[in-house]
Design a protein that fits this description.
Strand order of the largest sheet: 1-4
Order of helices and strands: HEEEEHH
Largest sheet: 2 strands, antiparallel
Helix content: 10-25%
Number of strands: 4
Shape: globular
Radius of gyration: 14 Å
Keywords: Heme, Iron, Metal-binding, Monooxygenase, Oxidoreductase
Family: Belongs to the cytochrome P450 family.
Protein name: Cytochrome P450 CYP4G-like protein
InterPro entries: Cyt_P450, Cyt_P450_CS, Cyt_P450_E_grp-I, Cyt_P450_sf, Cytochrome_P450_Monoox
Structural class: alpha+beta
Strand content: 15-25%
Number of domains: 1
GO molecular function, one term: iron ion binding
């Protein structure tokens, strides 16, 4: 998992919004028709989620360190119904 965190096979996720979305982090509204882009590469390097985010540290995924982590803090193969099929065999 740590290798996939540092080198995600899907470094950018893009979704075209068919309807308005409210961001849960700040309540801002994103209008329909917008292409929303998430940089997985940067998401996996958030210092508030991964201490020393540039360092290879397999301990990042020990149960006690990842138990309270948000489900979408680690999405190397994207997420949701359009995620990479390869995630099932990786």
């Amino acid at each position: 998992k740590e290798t996939l965190r540092l080198h995600p096979p899907v470094p950018i996720i893009a979704r075209h919004l068919k309807q308005e979305v409210t961001l849960p982090s700040n309540g801002k509204k994103v209008p329909a028709g917008t292409t929303l882009v998430v940089a997985t590469f940067k998401l996996h390097r958030r210092p508030d989620v991964y201490p020393n985010p540039e360092k290879f540290d397999p301990d990042n995924f020990l149960p006690e360190r990842s138990a309270n982590r948000h489900y979408y803090a680690f999405v190397p193969f994207s997420a949701g119904p359009r995620s990479c099929l390869g995630r099932l065999v990786a």
